[in-house]
Specification:
With 448 residues, this protein is mostly helical. It has a single domain, classed as Growth Hormone, Chain: A (Up-down Bundle). It contains 14 helices and no strands. 47% of the residues are buried. Keywords: Membrane, Transmembrane, Transmembrane helix. InterPro entries: MFS_trans_sf (IPR036259), MOT2/MFSD5 (IPR008509). This is Molybdate-anion transporter.
């Protein structure tokens, strides 16, 4: 997805990277001076307990390692498949396999994560990556179906189990509830940074002395380190619950709280729009035979998402008279407008890249904001199940889009983006409704 070998004509201005880098640094290093003077709890505040800092840094190290594994296959997977002679239609079918597997597996994996413990499912995430690495290493012509299914399951687990596990451990260890804000935006920040590192690592692997098995070896090594790190010094879920009790409580609570439905739909719409974007952004940029260096544009997206995540602590520190729901309404509307311009108004490459950057900056803000709202409205014992269930409609919509637009070509790219715009605008409406109905959240955010 992110790696290109052929020379290209259009490249981003180097000033773009400098601007994103210094903007992130400015946002991060300026915020503590403002927040501490107003007695706002942040990771830069010396009043934060050392036990929390150890817990947070240890978790972020694990999450960053897992992000590198995910990013390696995102940046390297299609290139390696192409090296085995896989054509366009087979590539599309591999994506269909992945989203079909996620569609059926995400609700069950979410429930299983709540029942058996998030740590065990995170271990399964590492095992899946280890298995794919071994499979690609020993097989001369690895099965696209097997690799797609395994990587899809791993990506599904990555999307909710690490966050659910962190929140559960955070509550078990008795840390301040409002300090979760820092961990949420740092997760989004480090995930994007690790995706950039994965691309750099992938580009190094596909150098002049490229060999097919190189990425597999790297994946095996990273998975081994991750599994070893997970197996030592980490606690599981604080308590177990039977499936019968869980299902009855889950149905009674989740189905009866319209705020959770609104939050789940907003999450599904974001997931769908991001999926459509990553499928269509490259064809949109190279439309009409335009030649670009896709590998240099990819870091701009992730850098802007890092910048967007650094805005989150500013909005939640109490300095601005806006609620999280208000921020999400504006962010979703901006995403919808950006995607609609991309879909229906032909733009030069520079303008397109600028719109893409704005899109990902809003995504970087939305991700930790939704995590914060989940902590406010969703009980921790149902968090994995709720997040897994919210992924199902998004995966179904992406799968349908791939089949109709990518495989059968019955729907144009503009129409697919239009569906994403519609979802984003309805998500903005959900956040507005959540603001009106969410007067009494499940968790009192400032009780600790």
């Amino acid at each position: 997805m992110a790696i290109t070998i052929d020379s290209s004509v259009w490249e981003p201005n180097p000033f773009t990277y400098i601007f994103l880098f210094f903007s992130c640094c400015f946002s991060i290093f300026l915020f503590p001076h403002v927040s501490i003077s107003n007695r706002t709890s942040t990771v830069f505040d010396h009043g934060i307990s050392s036990s929390f800092l150890r817990f947070q840094r240890k978790f972020l190290l694990l999450y960053s390692l897992s992000s590198v594994m995910e990013g390696l296959w995102l940046a390297f997977g299609e290139f390696e498949l192409a090296s085995y002679g896989v054509g366009r239609e087979q590539m599309v079918m591999s994506l269909c396999y992945r989203f079909a597997a996620s569609l059926f597996a995400s609700p069950f994996l979410g429930v299983i994560s709540d029942l058996i413990g998030h740590k065990k499912l995170c271990l399964f995430f590492g095992i899946l990556h280890f298995f794919v690495g071994i499979w690609m290493r020993v097989s001369e012509y690895p099965s696209i179906f097997v690799t797609s299914i395994c990587l899809s399951l791993a990506n599904t687990i990555f999307s909710f189990s690490f966050e659910s596990w962190m929140v559960t451990l955070h509550e078990k260890q008795g840390h301040r509830l409002d300090s979760l804000n820092d961990t949420f935006w740092l997760m989004a920040f480090f995930e994007s940074a690790c995706f950039i590192a994965s691309q750099m690592f992938g580009n190094w692997l596909v150098g002049d002395n490229f060999q097919k098995k190189t990425a597999s070896t790297a994946a095996i090594f990273l998975a081994t380190v991750c599994i070893t790190f997970l197996s030592r010094g980490w606690a599981g879920n604080p308590k177990a619950i039977s499936f019968k009790d869980y299902s009855m409580s889950f149905y009674a609570y989740i189905s009866g709280d319209k705020r959770i439905w609104l939050l789940g739909w907003a999450q599904a719409c974001l997931h769908f729009s991001i999926g459509i974007f990553w499928i269509l952004w490259a064809p949109t940029v190279v439309a009409d035979g335009r030649e670009v260096h896709l590998g240099l544009i990819y870091p701009c997206f992730l850098g802007s998402r890092m910048l967007g995540s650094t805005v989150f602590p500013w909005l939640t520190s109490g300095h601005l008279p806006v609620r999280t729901e208000d921020c999400l309404v504006y962010a979703y509307i901006i995403l919808g407008l950006v995607l609609s311009i991309i879909a229906y108004d032909y733009q030069e490459i520079g303008v397109l890249v600028a719109l893409f950057i704005l899109f990902h900056a809003c995504v970087g803000l939305i991700l930790p904001s939704l995590a914060r709202l989940r902590t406010m409205y969703v009980p921790n014992e149902f968090r994995g199940g709720m997040m897994g269930l919210s992924l199902a409609p998004a995966n179904a919509a992406i799968l349908l889009s791939l089949l109709q637009g990518g495989y059968y070509r019955n729907i144009g790219n503009a129409a697919l983006m239009a569906f994403g715009v519609l979802g984003l605008l309805t998500a903005a409406g959900c956040m507005h409704a959540l603001k009106q109905w969410g007067k009494q959240p499940y968790n009192n955010w400032h009780k600790q």
